[in-house]
Amino acid sequence: MENPGLVAHGEAAPFSTALRSLVNNRLYSDVRFVVGQERQEVFAHRCLLACRCNFFQRLLGQEPGPGVPSPVVLSTVPAEAFLAVLEFLYTNSVKLYRHSVLEVLTAAVEYGLEELRKLCLEFVAKVLDVELVCEALQVAVTFGLGPLQERCIAFIEAHSQEVLRTRGFLELSAPALLPLLRSDKLCVDEAELVLAARSWARVGAVEQIVEAWKCHALRRGNAARGAPCRRRRGTLPREHHRFLDLPFK
What we know:
Blueprint: H1 12-20, E1 31-35, E2 40-44, H2 46-52, H3 54-59, E3 72-74, H4 79-91, H5 101-110, H6 114-127, H7 133-143, H8 146-158, H9 160-164, H10 167-170, H11 174-182, H12 190-222, H13 238-241
Parallel strand pairs: 1-3
Antiparallel strand pairs: 1-2
């Protein structure tokens, strides 16, 4: 009886390097993306994306028609994050950066890339600091990433005063802020917490008023340029009203 064959592996590095050279390479590409608000053009290879990711398999399931195919528009993912996703899909490795890792993490969650999600979470844990923690908390709350949320809350509890002074704290959503306000481990007195919460509410109020005025101007100018605004001018989200008249507890 013939023995089963033995799988022989070549060197991985040249293989990975060759595939990395195809990331955003027009050569032999058969799918074109327009990515992010900057509408950057990105080239890719349909078969590789489809076999590596179910999201792209569904997105690219139909065979391209004759002629030049229309680009696939992905306006919500920044170009840098999308290119990181492609690098991972092509090479099974990715170079992460502090300034963009949360955007890559968001894309990994939305595209169902579990291994990339884990790599991003490990990287975030290593680089978490006062300036990044509120943005990380917001991502954790938005996508239900429980361990990351717990890590962020623990970090904020240990660095409360510094974190409450950051822009990131003022930009938290109400669902992300409430667990912090309920914590009894914050290293800050109640008066400072009340002032920080009021600042959060006022910043959110101003942003909503600006948004409402922009929509009002849009309707007066050319309504066809954007979706209609359903919120009445000057009205604020309900969650902000709760924090304009404190104290807590």
